[in-house]
Specification:
It is a single chain. This protein is mainly beta. It has two domains: 33-159, Immunoglobulin-like, CATH 2.60.40; 166-196, no CATH class. It has one helix at residues 2-20, and strands at 36-40, 44-50, 55-65, 76-82, 94-95, 100-103, 110-118, 131-140, 145-147, 151-159, 166-172, 180-190, 193-196. The strands form three sheets. It has a five-stranded mixed sheet with strand order 5-7-3-1-9, with no helix packed on it. Strand 11 (166-172) and strand 12 (180-190) form a beta hairpin. The radius of gyration is 30 Å and the shape is flat.
């Protein structure tokens, strides 16, 4: 029985040490040789505007990223298009005036892509908010920059026009007590956001 125990320990020991003798090769050294990608900083965002007939211009952050993006010395041009899966309609919900953007090394290969949100003819509230899905169709300029293939989903939220800002006379009465009257000023602070004095 003792010999069986020693033989078993010997076999397990040989198996344990021989598994460490395999030289695993990794491709971690090749990471610095991979391509850089041009794409969006976020995967999704929301644009909000009052449906008052105005056009609202919003910025979408784009950038070049990857293992050697800091070594790029030439401009990179990204061509951006709407994905067919978008529920937002061009000319109704949005407009893209310039589908290309040039990213410069002097700006750290960062840029702001302009999307115009249209509100003319939009009747709020909408049953469902339209979504614009953008993708980088092409990246050109530097040899080792490709389009990332990732999209950004932009949800368009349309708010009803409201005209609550102004000065009001307020009368308050509680449980048969004497009424209290004062003047209240409501100030508009943002889209559908207001602040009162009290």
């Amino acid at each position: 029985m003792k010999t069986l125990k020693y033989i078993l320990l010997f076999i397990l020991g040989v198996g344990l040490f021989s598994s460490c003798l395999i030289e695993d090769e990794t491709n971690l050294d090749l990471n610095s040789e991979g391509p850089n990608l041009g794409g969006f900083e976020l995967a999704r965002t929301t644009f909000a505007a009052i449906a008052d007939g105005e056009e609202n211009i919003f910025d979408v952050k784009v950038k070049v990223f990857g293992p050697t993006w800091m070594d790029i010395n030439s401009d990179v041009t990204l061509t951006i298009e709407a994905d067919p899966a978008s529920t937002a309609i061009a000319g109704t919900h949005y407009r893209i005036d310039n589908p290309t953007i040039t990213l410069s090394p002097s700006q750290n290969l960062l840029g702001l892509f302009k999307v115009t949100m249209l509100t003319e003819g939009i009747e709020t509230p909408l049953a469902k908010s339209p979504v614009l899905i953008l993708r980088v169709k092409e990246a050109s300029g530097a040899n080792n920059v490709l389009n990332s293939g990732k999209t950004i989903s932009i949800t368009f939220n349309y708010a009803c026009p409201s005209f609550l800002d102004g000065t009001y006379n307020v009368t308050m009465s509680r449980d048969g007590g004497a009424p209290v009257t004062w003047t209240e000023t409501i100030t508009k602070t943002g889209i559908g956001e207001y602040r009162t004095q009290r």
